[in-house]
Recover the amino acids of this structure.
């Protein structure tokens, strides 16, 4: 059998890398172009805002689940804390919104550090503890002084609403998330995370500092939902614990990420695009049965495409793994 | 001169069970030390202690004279210790090349240089044509070879092989024996656990026999082969 020699292997690698980055650039360019024109062509701003939000959320979740192997059922905690951070800084402390948003990300990172001891758990134990911690976050904020968090009425941001600007900030957040995950997918940290995901003990014995690697992945996964929460608070102009910590946010994030396929850059994008559109179509046709039909569609998807759309495609065509971001 | 690897009076308990009871040995550079014993003798527990996965309750582990007792697995790996497992523990959803890159992620070399090295290693292990496949797509024997390749990537000074021949086709077995001989020729210290006594006797310079967590015999192949305690432990005679 003719084995490829080192120079032909090197050329083959360069070719694969070229295709990978070209596809990534095309995908990124298409996404930017598509969303950038939305405010100008009179398309539904809210729908596209939330589409970008779900792409970002699903991509952040992908770092935690697809790369690191954690399934945080309490993922909404970062989102909620980010939303309240922006609202409190803007409404109570008079911060400009654009200055408050990085603090939302920072709040997500601080919360992730507080939750970091749970990373020694795995599987369903981690998932349940994470869910419990999200409830604790919600309870803590609910029970904080009303002057600070607005009690059950929440906080209204007043005259801060700038739908188009917040739309573009959401777009920038999404592109930052996608860029981070593109980098992660090819980086040494990404390889270490995947190794830890597949077998933490073996990775440890191969010289990977699993505690540090897990923490880095966890911080990346926490940052983006927190910023999303902040941007959404700005967009809707109101934050309350009922919506900011709604478990449906975690549920949708998980469904969109899994539908596309965890572990790839494009999976959560495809998953969010397909499922959010599907959700919208179902809602238009069957407004009363919307969640029921969406739930059914999710069950069918998981049954027939357990690795998600992109994941299943790459299972059918393993050779494409090197080319598809 | 310091031994490449040394264990002094290792004791490891799991609740009331004493898995290792005062085990001690020393292995020199370039030496192949066979470790034999019936199931439950403490062979894998010993290996897990040596590579930091288990912390011994008592005793000391030294690598080239340095006390590494209590160190974490990745700290011990960074000091030049590699291992394989009884049941292959490859990174299932990573390509073969990525599997090999994991132990050298902290190395200051370009990615391209590391990938070249990984491909050379895969060529040596006859897995080069499968380099882009996921590890989960390999057969059991191929996964054993992949583990061996992954272990050798950072050029460790001490290698520990846990049952490398278990469930492996004889042709592949011969190939693995050649690789272990090559490791010894490269002056690596090899700890070899196996139930395949023929291979152990062929490869080992010395053999350590364990039974119920204790060293019941240690010495050259001929001495171990005829040792009554070893015969009794194995055959119950």
């Amino acid at each position: 059998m003719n084995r490829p020699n080192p120079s032909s292997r090197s050329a083959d690698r360069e070719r694969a890398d070229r295709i990978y980055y070209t596809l990534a650039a095309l995908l990124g360019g298409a996404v930017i172009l598509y969303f950038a024109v939305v405010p100008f062509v009179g398309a539904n701003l809210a729908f596209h805002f939330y589409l970008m939000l779900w792409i970002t959320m699903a991509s952040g979740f992908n770092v935690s689940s697809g790369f690191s192997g954690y399934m945080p059922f309490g993922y909404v905690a970062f989102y909620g804390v980010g939303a309240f951070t922006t609202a409190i800084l803007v409404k109570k402390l008079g911060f400009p919104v654009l200055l408050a948003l990085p603090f939302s990300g920072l709040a997500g990172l601080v919360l992730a550090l507080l939750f970091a001891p749970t990373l020694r758990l795995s599987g369903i134990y981690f998932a349940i503890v994470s869910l419990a911690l999200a409830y604790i976050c919600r309870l803590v904020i609910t029970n904080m002084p009303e002057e600070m968090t607005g009690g059950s009425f929440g906080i209204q941001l007043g005259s801060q609403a700038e739908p188009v600007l917040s739309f573009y900030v959401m777009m920038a957040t999404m592109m930052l998330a996608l860029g981070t995950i593109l980098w992660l997918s090819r980086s040494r940290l990404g390889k270490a995370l995947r190794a830890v995901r597949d077998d933490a003990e073996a990775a440890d014995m191969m010289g990977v500092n699993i505690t540090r690697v897990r923490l880095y992945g966890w911080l990346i996964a926490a940052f983006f939902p927190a910023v999303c929460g902040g941007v959404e608070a700005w967009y809707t102009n109101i934050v309350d614990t009922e919506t900011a910590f709604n478990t449906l946010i975690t549920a949708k994030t998980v469904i969109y990420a899994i539908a596309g396929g965890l572990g790839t850059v494009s999976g959560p994008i495809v998953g969010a695009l397909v499922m959010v559109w599907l959700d919208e179509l179902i809602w238009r046709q069957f407004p009363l049965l919307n969640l029921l039909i969406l739930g059914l569609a999710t069950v069918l998807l998981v049954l027939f495409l357990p690795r998600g759309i992109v994941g299943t495609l790459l299972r059918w065509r393993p050779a494409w793994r090197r080319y598809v971001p | 001169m310091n031994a490449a690897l040394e264990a002094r009076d290792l004791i490891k308990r799991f609740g009331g069970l004493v898995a290792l009871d005062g085990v001690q040995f020393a292995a020199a550079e370039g030496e192949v030390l066979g470790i034999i014993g019936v199931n439950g003798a403490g062979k894998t527990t010993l290996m897990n202690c040596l590579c930091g996965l288990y912390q011994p309750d008592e005793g000391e582990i030294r690598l080239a004279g340095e006390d590494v007792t209590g160190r974490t697995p990745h700290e011990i790996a960074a000091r030049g210790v590699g291992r394989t497992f009884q049941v292959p523990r490859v990174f299932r959803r990573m390509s073969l090349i990525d599997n090999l890159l994991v132990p050298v992620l902290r190395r200051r070399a370009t990615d391209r240089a590391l990938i070249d090295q990984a491909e050379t290693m895969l060529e040596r292990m006859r897995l080069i044509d499968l380099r882009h496949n996921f590890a989960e797509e390999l057969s059991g024997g191929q996964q054993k070879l992949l583990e061996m390749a992954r272990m050798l990537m950072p050029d460790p000074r001490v290698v520990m092989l846990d049952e490398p021949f278990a469930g492996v086709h004889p042709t592949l077995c011969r190939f693995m024996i050649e690789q272990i001989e090559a490791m010894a020729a490269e002056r690596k210290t090899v700890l070899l656990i196996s139930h395949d006594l023929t291979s152990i006797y062929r490869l080992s310079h010395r053999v350590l026999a364990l039974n119920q967590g204790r060293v019941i015999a240690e010495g050259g192949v001929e001495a171990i082969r005829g040792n009554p305690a070893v015969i009794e432990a194995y055959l119950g005679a």
